[in-house]
Design a protein that fits this description.
The protein is α/β, with parallel strands linked by helices and 665 residues long. Helix content is 49%, strand content 9%. The protein has 29 helices and nine strands.
């Protein structure tokens, strides 16, 4: 039976972990770097870092008791209880109102500990209930039913009865607390539970009542740590610092998310001494991301009902099968299959596609003609237009615009290339290698169709840069370009359809930026200004510095301000840019500086390269204008660069488009 079209729509539409529910076991692919996390033998807290879409929440959900003791798991070893995960994502809005409002700081400190105790106690009781109902044989629901929680009534008189009654009392206390927080100046202050001490009491009581739970360890995973207020972070930092078996606290956050590393005491937490830091984005990029991305894609297709796929879902969910998934015999057919589904084009095929399009061909001829006119040359366009040399011909307009190159020299090199003689066009450092992609993007910038450079699964992986949500959305939108018949048969997606899907996805991701935290609107404006500047750079007729998509701050009358550094950190936190180290040797001294790369997923919208080839050097003043300058200042800056580069008039659908929006607000 063929999978339905609706099944495809459903499985790809759910590209956020929150949409999958608490049990993600069937949807999870164990990452190739899983063993680096040392989770099986962890006795020290873990700090997981990564941007949106890198799989933080999915990993934490997989480690939680709902997935570890999933009803979908037919066998669960007894030693699974040595790692019982308790997932906690603090309600951002609720945490934000637990501050000030006429109450002293120590009251809110105790209140947050009370909230921590209630929510994690609910998770803890749910975990043992889940284990009892699972295929784990250590104890069952009948055994759990016999456990009385009356001893915990010392904390509150309502904490009595079996696990169901105890859980209901905890829920009642949580509702009572939420009502008090909403009415702190009207309602009576509740008696606060003592946080971690209360959790330790529950764990001790359970282990005493259920001897088979003696080896159990509980690992709290706090997601989106960056959304907590400073005093709340200090409380959780304290939990990390004093974590010990059987209760270990771990946190996950975006980059630059620590508001403070202080604890409630006089000490601060430190990497290695108090926790182990793991950068999930770096691990993904360093561990053959295309293979992992293909596995995630094919698992989604398998869940949609497709058969004969190059993966076994059971192996993808088994940490012991990682070594097999790294073998050549496994990887090669996997990549062949996904490459056949999302085929890309070679540079030669990209060039030939131009000459199959009448509009692009005409534009190319016009640009050769204009370049010759600008040089005062009387030579004909035909002397430089050779469809049998598509890559060379596409680079010709840029070469003709370079005044240091004689028109006759370009013509001579073309003739030599036609005669299969090596020259300046050929080779790994030749004119084609250095200029073709930049010239191709410049050519497509005048065309309504997106450039097929943005097609191919390998390209989708580069555009995603380790972001699985972006990768799945690129695949989803591209597959939606197919007819129902082709989709259910999983026919190859034509490169043109992929490029169209990439542009649509890119625009959608850009529209998300205003939701990125407290500076979302400013980040949105910054990305449009930066993308517009890179788009201008791609329109230089000479293509003297092709394919610029990253910048370095290299000059200025004053050093970059603290406010702008904080803004760039916020941009990196939300993955709209990435910071990379740049090392140079100057007079035998190692100089380390940083450069910033625009997230490549925005490249199709601006019709710029996703390849990190050349950087654009900006002064501190230029960066300040891009970040916080007025509409007129930003327009003047782009106009200045446009004049210096002698670019063509901008295409209104992308370049400077945001200025109209700015002016209307």
């Amino acid at each position: 039976m063929k999978p339905s079209l609706q099944s495809f729509r459903t499985v790809f539409a759910k590209n956020r972990t929150e949409e999958l529910g608490a049990d993600v076991y069937r949807h999870f692919v164990v990452p190739h770097f899983y063993d680096q996390l040392d989770l099986r033998i962890a006795r020290k807290p873990r700090l997981l870092i990564g941007g949106r879409g890198c799989g933080k929440t999915m990993l934490l959900r997989y480690l939680s008791h709902q997935s570890a003791f999933s009803q979908d798991r037919t066998t669960i070893p007894d030693d699974a209880i040595e790692h019982i995960g308790l997932y906690w994502r603090v309600d951002t809005q609720f945490a934000a109102i637990m501050n000030e409002r006429g109450l002293a700081g120590d009251v809110w400190h105790s209140a947050f500990n009370h909230l921590l105790a209630l929510l994690l106690a609910l998770e803890l009781v749910s975990s043992v209930s889940n284990i009892a109902a699972s295929s784990c044989t250590l104890f069952n629901e009948t055994d759990l039913k016999k456990v009385s929680f009356d001893r915990l009534s010392i904390f509150d008189p309502t904490f009595i009865g079996d696990s169901s009654q105890f859980k209901r009392s905890l829920q009642d206390k949580l509702w009572e607390f939420e009502l008090w927080v909403a009415n702190v100046r009207k309602a009576k202050e509740p008696i606060f539970l003592p946080g971690v001490q209360f959790l330790a009491a529950i764990i001790g009581h359970l282990k005493s009542a259920l001897p088979t739970l003696a080896p159990a360890n509980f690992y709290v995973y706090v997601d989106e740590f960056e959304n907590l207020l400073p005093y709340q972070q200090r409380i959780l930092n304290t939990c990390l610092k004093h974590s010990e078996i059987p209760l270990i606290f771990n946190i996950a956050m975006k980059r630059h998310a620590f508001e403070t590393k202080d604890t409630v005491g006089t000490e601060a937490i430190q990497n290695i001494a108090d926790y182990r830091e793991h950068d999930l984005e770096k691990y993904l990029l360093d561990s053959n991301f295309p293979v992992f991305a293909a596995e995630v894609l094919f698992l989604n297709l398998a869940l949609a009902g497709l058969k004969n796929l190059p993966i076994d879902p059971a192996e993808l969910q088994n940490p012991d099968a990682i070594s097999k998934r790294k073998t050549k015999s496994y990887i090669e057919p996997l990549l062949r299959k996904v490459g056949a589904l999302f085929p890309g084009l070679t540079h030669e095929e990209l060039a030939k596609a131009v000459f199959m399009n009448e509009s692009l061909t005409r534009t190319l001829q016009d640009r050769i003609r204009l370049a010759l006119q600008s040089r005062g040359s009387s030579k004909s366009v035909e002397s430089f237009f050779f469809p049998e040399l598509p890559q060379a011909t596409i680079t010709v307009p840029a070469l003709l615009h370079r005044k240091r190159l004689a028109v006759e020299d370009v013509e001579l090199e073309l003739l030599q290339l036609r005669e299969n003689q090596k020259g300046k066009f050929a080779g790994t450092n030749g004119w084609i290698h250095n200029n073709f992609i930049g010239c191709l993007l410049w050519l497509y910038d005048s065309h309504s169709s997106p450039c097929p450079l943005y097609s191919g699964f390998d390209t989708f992986c580069l555009l995603s840069r380790g972001n699985l949500r972006h990768l799945l959305e690129l695949c989803h939108i591209s597959l939606n370009q197919l007819s129902e018949a082709d989709l259910t048969e999983l026919k190859p997606v034509p490169p043109a359809a992929q490029a169209k899907g990439a542009r649509q996805a890119s625009a959608a991701f850009l529209n998300e930026i205003p939701t990125f935290g407290r500076l979302g609107d400013r980040l949105h404006t910054f990305v449009f200004r930066l993308g517009s500047l890179f788009a201008l750079a791609h329109r230089r007729p000479s293509q003297s510095e092709p394919e610029q998509c990253h910048f370095a701050i290299t000059s200025g009358e004053e050093p970059i301000s603290r406010e702008n550094i904080e803004f760039l950190n916020e941009a990196e936190k939300w993955s709209v840019i990435f910071q990379e180290e740049e090392t140079k040797l100057k007079q035998e001294v190692r100089i380390v500086s940083f450069q910033y790369v625009l997230n490549p997923v925005y490249s199709p919208f601006f019709n710029i390269t996703y390849r990190k080839i050349r950087k654009l050097e900006l002064s501190q003043q230029d960066v300040d204008i891009l970040i916080r300058g007025s509409f007129d200042q930003a327009k003047e800056l782009l106009g200045r660069f446009s004049k210096n580069w002698r670019t063509e008039a901008p295409r209104s659908s992308t370049l400077f488009f945001h200025f109209g929006e700015e002016a209307s607000t």
